[in-house]
């Protein structure tokens, strides 16, 4: 059923759980896996500062993710690749880039983690997963985070 799986990751524990799920699904289905990391610096983080150190830090994070994801693909015997996309100028739409990558790569399904934020935190921070689902033209599997970080707590 799923021969081409795209998983969007961002370096968070929730995204790691989505990657784990997508990797297991790819193994079970003998599918190809496309791992996507989008370099995005919210404008709020750089409003009063030079944005280039933040951009470079995100690029470095992307390269680390590329290396680790590539090693995990190889270790699991899964065919696939890792793509890094950049949103410049700052403050672009990550969910649009996820759906665009899925379309360009002809993914059968998108796998993405969700933090499960509610109320004010959801309004303040937005939801890439929710927007991805709303914009999607293919199935999306949402993986709720079970590993918590201090900044991922649900209000």
Automatic annotation (TrEMBL):
SUPFAM superfamilies: Adenine nucleotide alpha hydrolases-like
Sections of the chain in a coiled coil: none
Top-rank taxon, per record: Bacteria
One Pfam family in the UniProt entry: Usp
Domain UspA per the UniProt entry, residue ranges: 1-144
Alphabetized InterPro entries for the sequence: Rossmann-like_a/b/a_fold, Universal_stress_UspA, UspA
Family under the similarity heading: Belongs to the universal stress protein A family.
Protein name per the record: UspA domain-containing protein
Source organism (scientific name): Pandoraea communis
């Amino acid at each position: 059923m799923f021969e081409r799986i795209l998983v969007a990751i961002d370096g968070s524990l929730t995204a790691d759980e989505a990657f784990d799920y997508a990797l297991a699904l790819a193994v079970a289905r003998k599918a190809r896996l496309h791992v996507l990391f989008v370099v995005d610096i919210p404008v709020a983080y750089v409003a009063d500062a030079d944005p280039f150190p933040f951009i470079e830090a995100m690029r470095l994070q992307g390269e680390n993710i590329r290396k680790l994801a590539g090693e995990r693909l190889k270790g699991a015997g899964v065919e696939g690749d890792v793509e890094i996309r950049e949103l410049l100028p700052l403050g672009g739409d990550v969910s649009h880039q996820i759906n665009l990558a899925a379309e360009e790569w002809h993914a059968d399904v998108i796998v993405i983690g969700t933090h499960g934020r509610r109320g004010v935190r959801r309004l303040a921070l937005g939801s890439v997963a929710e927007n991805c689902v709303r914009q999607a033209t293919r199935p999306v599997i949402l993986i709720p985070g079970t590993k918590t970080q201090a900044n991922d707590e649900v209000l």
